[in-house]
Amino acid sequence: MKILVDARMSDDVRASLSNYGEVVSLPKWKGLPEPVSSHPDMLFYPLPDGKVLVGRDYYNENCEFFSRFGDVFTLDEKTPSGEYPFDVRFDCLGVNGVLYGKGGFVSETIMKCYSSFLPVNQGYTRCSVAMLGNSCAVTADKGIAAALKNNGIDVLLIRPGHIELNGYGFGFIGGAGALISDGVYGFFGDLYTHPDGKAIAEFADRHKIKAVSLSGGPLSDNGGLLILREAQSR
């Protein structure tokens, strides 16, 4: 499989991820601030039908890059650009038929794919949530935690901060890792450098998810990652 990652992903994390598939750096997008200009969770949205939504301008600017992946990508007329909240067009979270995101700023294409939409105050919704599975999540955002719990998701609320993101005071837990294979959730850095690292690992274990640290050092928000299975990219 192909694993599309932030251009700034550390070599150590890349080396760990290469055990699961081919690691591919994403081109930067001029419409986003430099520190997050190649963050997967801001540039793409995996649709329920298996296609991956990407903004037309970003796609057209990098046609040669995208051509290697076949027809997996589908285009949105607008590309996330500018300052918050105009950059959160794809940074929403779909779980069990419910879409969570910033009201008025989520892509209409994504909205049409879900039976219901639940607005939350935190526009960086997907960035803010580590979805360990369809029934369990980790977040430092109280509003998102409450919304998920109301829809039957078991949520571990952690302390904010303690995650690096160059150019910003701190990053988010959702951008600091991803589900990298069945039952394995990888974190970009050493999970136990976070003050709630042990609690996160124990919470994951209760849900039969193995939390793994993909490198040493502090957790880093790299905007998650985008996995393309072989069947998708043919």
| Radius of gyration, whole Å | 16 Å
Sheet/helix structural class:
alpha/beta
Write down the overall mean pLDDT. Answer: 96
CATH architecture group name:
5-stranded Propeller
Number of strands: 17
Integer count of domains: 1
Distance between the termini: 11 Å
**Contiguous uncertain segments of 5+ residues:** none
Percent range of helical residues: 10-25%
What is the element string, with H for helices and E for strands? Answer: EHEHEEHHEEEHEEEHEEEEHEEEH
Layout of secondary structure:
Layout: E1 2-5, H1 11-17, E2 22-25, H2 40-43, E3 44-46, E4 52-55, H3 56-61, H4 63-66, E5 73-76, E6 93-95, E7 98-101, H5 108-111, E8 116-119, E9 129-133, E10 136-139, H6 142-150, E11 154-157, E12 163-164, E13 177-181, E14 184-187, H7 197-206, E15 210-213, E16 219-220, E17 226-228, H8 230-233
Parallel strand pairs: 1-2, 4-5, 7-8, 10-11, 12-16, 14-15
Antiparallel strand pairs: 1-17, 3-4, 6-7, 9-10, 13-14
Short recap of the structure:
The chain is an alpha/beta fold and 234 residues long. Helices cover 21% and strands 27% of the residues.
Overall description:
This protein is of the alpha/beta class. The chain has one domain: L-arginine/glycine Amidinotransferase, Chain A, CATH 3.75.10.10. It is 21% helix and 27% strand. The protein has eight helices and 17 strands. The chain has helices spanning 11-17, 40-43, 56-61, 63-66, 108-111, 142-150, 197-206, 230-233; strands spanning 2-5, 22-25, 44-46, 52-55, 73-76, 93-95, 98-101, 116-119, 129-133, 136-139, 154-157, 163-164, 177-181, 184-187, 210-213, 219-220, 226-228. The strands form six sheets. It has a three-stranded mixed sheet with strand order 2-1-17. A three-stranded mixed sheet has the order 3-4-5. It has a three-stranded mixed sheet with strand order 6-7-8, with no helix packed on it.
